[in-house]
Amino acid sequence: MADKPFIARGFHGRRAAAPAGRLPPGQYETRDFPVLSAGPTPHASLATWDFTIRGAGDASPSMRWSWDELQALPHETPTVDIHCVTKWSKFDTKWEGVSVDTLLEAARAAGVADGAFVVAFCDGGYTTNLPLADVTGGKAWVAFGYDGAPLPPEHGGPARLLVPHLYFWKSAKWVRGLTVLPDDEPGFWEQLGYHDRGDPWREQRYRGDP
Amino acid sequence: MNETIGERVVASAPAPPRLEWQVATVVSVIQETPRARTLTLDVPHWPGHRAGQHVDVRLVAEDGYQAQRSYSIASAPADGMVALTVERLDDGEVSPYLCDVLQPGDGVEVRGPIGGYFVWEPAQRGPLLLIAGGSGIVPLMAMLRQHARADAAARAGVPVRLLYSARTLDDVIYRAELERLADPPQVDVVLTLTRQTPPDWRGYHRRVDRAMLEAVSWPSADEPNVFVCGPTSLVESVATVLVALGHDASRVRTERFGPTG
Q1: Which chain B residues have a beta carbon less than 8 Å from that of A189?
Q2: Statement: A64-78+95-202 belongs to CATH 2.60.40.10
Q3: Nearest to B70 among A14, A87, A154 (CB)
Q4: Which of A169, B132, B151, B229 is the most exposed place for a label (fewest CB within 10 A)?
């Protein structure tokens, strides 16, 4: 087991031109927008699309928005850096969406139970778990616009979660809702060995990383 | 929701220890094509892997500067060594080092195996349909090699077809090994070349399309397990067509990449 990094003989690297402090450890900057998904891209119809926030258990109250109802909520346009666990980072990506704070407030008012964790669920069956604190306080959005246009399906359209301060697998594509839970329940990649929190600045890529 | 990806992993399994960085030793290098090179690594504490998984490679310079990338494993689980096939990107940072500088006897830091969804195991029922674009063949080769190591009866129970899209015949990675698998046929190997073809070429000469997939794939009623790996454009179009042809999305597993620098 290597405690100290092993020096690669003759490796100098192509020093990133990225401004200091902007690239988390082990990441490199890309200008492309790579696509990573475990299966085929789902194609949802906006006529039947909805977004739901619910508590654990079928009996729990829930709050649901149709596409038009979601669009009627206040929009925000965050410009953020994103970091994929496969090592690329992309700077200054421009999004349009609704703050998760706005949605959770309405859900709380509708009686959806509070909890310290959420699991995002999606078309295609993908899930990912996040501490509630990581999707509140202006840090997370349900995003439906990218770079001034509707979010393309391969990048998660019609809507994806956007949680830019965590590795990008937490920003679930094709998101359809959040389940609010008292305990942390590992999602799709987390059950397959990826980190439950996924902070790129602490390099929390895989289970057991500090 | 009637579509689901993956089955819930048993929650009671003990948590594995942290994936630690290890210094592997390069045992051999093989130039597969003008742009792709296989590094066979002896990893001292390798926990074993499943066909389709990848590793992270980390390069650290004298002053502490580091770069990391992920590379698919090409070797079968039973091979003992870990083989990585790396495509060289001219403007890359890690792949030129792995392809030009690293020599047998050198050390290189790795950790893994990583990934648990894009994996094939012999116990999975049904035919195996592999579709590769370019260096997307690498994780699929691990599956082919694992399949080839099974006894004849086990192999007959899992028929395999490979559809492999490359730019030219010279860009076909593992070409000699694929020819051996195809004759006598253990695996149906179908090549399509998207740019130049040799004068006597009798295979496909175009990008993978719906007609090609209809000709090559089993009907959806046969419930093949499908693995698609390659550039995003190929994976997006292939996966979309397969779903349109009636294949259940949960049996179409994808890995999309541009090659990583």
Answers
A1: 117
A2: no
A3: A87
A4: B151
Of A87, A181, A197, A192, nearest in space to A139 by CA: A197
Query: Do residues B65 and B59 make contact, with C-beta atoms less than 8 angstroms apart?
Result: no
Which token pair is B43?
A: 């990893």
Residues of chain B with pLDDT > 70: what percent? Answer: 92
The domain that holds B51 is classified in CATH as 2.40.30.10
Across the range A78-106, mean pLDDT stands at 97
CA distances to A28, A44, B34 from A140, rounded to whole Å, are 23, 22, 45
Domain coverage including residue B52: 22-114
Any chain B CB within 8 A of the CB of A13?
Answer: yes
> Residue B22 is nearest to which of A2, A37, A209, comparing CB atoms?
A2
Interface of B with A in 191-250 (CB under 8 A): 232, 235-236, 239-240, 242-243, 249-250
Alpha carbon separation from A38 to A130, A188, B236, B254 (Å, rounded): 19, 10, 11, 5
Enumerate the H helices of A43-96 as residue ranges.
Answer: 67-71
Please tell me the distance in Å from A10's CA to the nearest CA on chain B.
7
Same domain, yes or no: B97 and B159: no
Residue B35 carries which side chain, given as an amino acid letter? Answer: R
Entry pTM: 0.92
CATH code of the domain containing B161: 3.40.50.80
Do B156 and B58 lie in one domain? The reply is no
For B25, other C-beta atoms within 10 Å of its C-beta total 15
* Rounded-to-integer distance, Cα B11 and Cα B225, Å: 25
pLDDT band at A16 (very low <50, low <70, confident <90, very high): low
Amino acid type, B10: V
Q: Contact B3/A42, CB-based, under 8 Å?
A: yes
Question: What is the average pLDDT across A37-60?
Answer: 91
Which stretches of A45-180 are DSSP H helices? 67-71, 100-109
Nearest beta carbon to residue A7 from set B5, B19, B60: B60
Residues of A in contact with B20 (CB under 8 A): 1-2
Say which amino acid occupies A111. G
Residues on chain B touching A44 (C-beta within 8 angstroms): none
| Residue B16 is assigned to a structural domain of this protein | no
Q: Which of A188, A152, A182 is nearest to A170 (CA)?
A: A188
Q: Chain A to chain B, count of Cβ pairs less than 8 Å apart?
A: 154
